[in-house]
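How a chain folds remains the central question behind the approach discussed here. The record that follows shows the chain in one-letter code together with its fold in token form:
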Amino acid sequence: MDKTKGTYCKIILKKSYMKLLKCHCGAVEAKVNAPDSLEKILRCNCSICKRKGAVMSLVKNEDFKIIKGKDKLKLYQFHTNVAKHYFCMICGIYTHHNPRSNPAMTGFNLGCVDEIDTFDLKNIAINDGYNHPLDKDKE
């Protein structure tokens, strides 16, 4: 793996478009049809993301498909109830979400993709979910 020509994700994703996402216990699996390089790798500082601490990326909803354990996923919503956050009800791992800023996209936990080592990723963008444009009078 040549880390001098781009990020770890860009190099890994050139090997294959389809990635397998798994929770910790293996009860939930998803196929992620990712482009040859992930355009957006980020963390978020909103109230839920700062607590889960995941490194995420995004694909269109049609490029993300649960292939195992749909009945093992638990939905969590809060505040405006627009965003949908999913986690495995057995091991508790956050697998994916649909953000309220763009519900047509699926954000997914890069830590759930075995061949991606999130500790090798550098210069990860921070999404300012704390100051979300849909929140007007935040105290």
